[in-house]
């Protein structure tokens, strides 16, 4: 998971609004463009960045491509970032990572 890509994606107000729309239903590029009053290519570029960051995913259904929020990726990205900032969480996360590495080597 690349936090830089996540925060780059979240830095744009239209992309955050797209995530809000996708939080409850799947939508196509055209449906999003209608809601925002933007062109389909503009929405498509925003969706591409969100998809590259792992925050949304798409599924082709015939002629339509539906986009949906990847809740787990968004939550994991933000939680990972919070752990790095937290004076207690950061060291615990690093210790957990070291323990996982030791456990994997022991298998």
From TrEMBL:
One GO term in the molecular function aspect is:
DNA binding
What InterPro entries does the record tag this protein with?
ArsR-like_HTH (IPR011991), HTH_ArsR_DNA-bd_dom (IPR001845), HTH_CRP (IPR012318), HTH_MetalResp_TranReg (IPR051081), WH-like_DNA-bd_sf (IPR036388), WH_DNA-bd_sf (IPR036390)
In terms of superkingdom, the source organism counts as: Bacteria
Keywords, ordered alphabetically:
DNA-binding, Transcription, Transcription regulation
Q: Is the Transcription keyword given for this protein?
A: yes
Domain HTH arsR-type spans what residues?
A: 1-89
By what name is this protein known? Winged helix-turn-helix transcriptional regulator
What organism is the protein native to? Pseudomarimonas arenosa
